[in-house]
Write a structure and sequence with these properties.
Mean pLDDT: 96
Bound molecules: flavin mononucleotide
CATH architecture: Alpha-Beta Barrel
CATH superfamily: Aldolase class I
Structural class: alpha/beta
CATH topology: TIM Barrel
Strand order of the largest sheet: 3-10-9-8-7-6-5-4
Largest sheet: 8 strands, parallel
Radius of gyration: 20 Å
Number of strands: 10
Number of helices: 17
Number of domains: 1
Amino acid sequence: MLSRPKLISFSDLHREAKKRLPKILFDVIESGVENEHLLARNEAAFKDHLLTPRLLVDVGVRTQQTTIFGKQYAAPIGIAPTGLAGMFRAGAESMLARAAVQTDVPFILSGACIEELEKVSAISPDRTWFQLYAARDRAVTEDLLTRTRDAGIETLVLTVDTPVLPKRERDMRNGFGLPLKPPLPLMLEALAHPAWIAHYLLNGGLPLMKTWARYAPKDAGAGEVFTYFRSQSPSIQTWKDLDFFRSRWDGNLVLKGIQHPADAIRAAEAGVDGVIVSNHGAKAMDQGPAAITCLPAVVQAVGSRVVVMMDSGIRRGADVVVARCLGAQFVFSGRGPLYGVIARGVEGAASCIEIFKDEIDRTLGLIGCPDARLLSTEYLSK
Ligand SMILES: Cc1cc2nc3c(=O)[nH]c(=O)nc-3n(C[C@H](O)[C@H](O)[C@H](O)COP(=O)(O)O)c2cc1C
């Protein structure tokens, strides 16, 4: 029997996931918005930050262990929230949670998940963070907060960068929605992925968003629950709403999507515990700066008061090292673990994190920095 190809880098995960999924679904993950300029900019901006090695340092023992919100993890990288993950592979959210346990990193469960938040977080409540898309109906939001707390989750991530639906043109052209309405050529292309189709038929077809099902009309099917979810999210949130979340949530409160330092200051003043500098992996607005470009000003503005994290465009361990040099205490990858889980389930998602860890470790050794906590602008080329 032929052995499976080795997973050596992010691009291997991307390639395998692409092979497995019909285009109508793969494009949902890979795409950005409109011209997809930001998608390229997020990645290219890392290439502008070069690392200058320091030599003759004893790097025989290296560590990248990182403590955040009082918990120690094996690496400064975690799994970012990706909505509808369970549509790309049945059970993907639980698989991502297991991969996080296996690799000892945090996992942010998307508020737009397929499985029940209680079920997924039970796999490892103290490393699972919950990402909330606030509902238009405050009672639903309140209930989600109660459920999150009751599930033993300590960190709530409030995503605030998509008050309106972004223009995701590949999805519009491909007829992506629930139900899927692909044009004929895409329907034929989907038939070339019998493994995915068989898997889905075996798992009961297009999945129901179980976390949200209880708020939708009684006995609603997958399509109706999705329509209900869309009627609630995106919702417009303001600084006043942030005060509500702060008063209602006792645990760590993280605001995701911050780009402007003035917003970071306002968030710190409102009492958040952390911010994630992010442009939603280029899936919100196209005409914006790369996330890594926004990071230094946010670190300067609030780095001493709140935990500053970042995502969007991380493809290599060296990108993680650069982000740490620029002051991010932690980074997240969205597409990487998702490609991994689609390609090979728990093992694939864990491979993604292990690949990042390995590349971080080699980079630390090569730049002469034995401990990721010591990274600073000193290692960047001026
Ligand atoms: C398919 C997909 C779904 C996403 N769904 C969510 C989501 O439900 N909630 C959220 O806060 N961010 C979501 N994001 C954004 C990610 O959390 C993260 O910010 C982004 O993927 C980071 O960029 P990267 O993919 O380049 O690592 C999604 C991203 C992708 C690619």
